[in-house]
Write a structure and sequence with these properties.
12 strands
Length: 187
């Protein structure tokens, strides 16, 4: 269907903030179809525990596509225990080269408490500058707000929550119903 006939899904803002020995990933709950909010309480931030090691992941994009990617990431983490960066690179390689995976429309922010990474379907595994990463419809608003808040004495969770509140005030595809997962630096 043409975009004018079927307006397409929008919504979600995910932010990752690293401060000291703590990393927080927060995501809003909004899913919109065109100008209509379909759901306001979706859970787009999840804790994975492959091999008993915690990883927190947030996703923006198609939910089914994101779940496929999260399952693949868990498989990679089982193959490379305790090596989030390597597992992420292997996932990005598969995502870029596999004809089935190439069609997936989602992005991920992942952390094990040490690494904070953005994984894209273009084959990118990016470690953000300034210890802040954001994706999704309101990602740029949340990123700008968090970067400004990094000069304060606030902790990671407070920065993430305030940045998400600012994004929700600006982006019509972002709401204030947050899921927040915290993880301490490993090692």
């Amino acid at each position: 269907m043409a975009e004018t006939q079927f307006p397409g899904w929008h919504g979600t803002t995910i932010i990752g903030v690293r401060r000291g020995d703590e990393v927080v990933i927060a995501g809003d709950g909004q899913v919109s179809l065109g100008q209509t909010v379909i759901k306001g309480t979706a859970r787009k931030v999840r804790r994975l525990s492959p091999g008993g090691r915690d990883v927190v992941a947030g996703f923006a994009g198609s939910t089914a596509d994101a779940f496929t990617l999260l399952e693949r990431l868990e498989t990679k983490l089982e193959a490379f225990p305790g090596q989030l960066a390597r597992a992420s690179v292997e996932l990005a390689k598969d995502w870029r080269t596999d004809k089935y995976l190439q069609k997936l429309e989602a992005m991920l922010i992942v952390t094990d408490g040490t690494d904070l990474l953005v994984i894209t379907g273009a084959g990118d595994v990016l470690e953000p500058e300034h210890d802040v990463a954001a994706i999704g419809s309101g990602g740029n608003f949340a990123l700008a707000a968090a970067r400004g808040l990094m000069s304060t004495d606030l902790g990671a969770e407070d920065i993430a929550r305030q940045a998400m509140a600012i994004a929700a005030d600006i982006c019509v595809y972002t709401n204030g119903k947050l899921t927040v997962e915290r993880i301490a630096r490993q090692g």
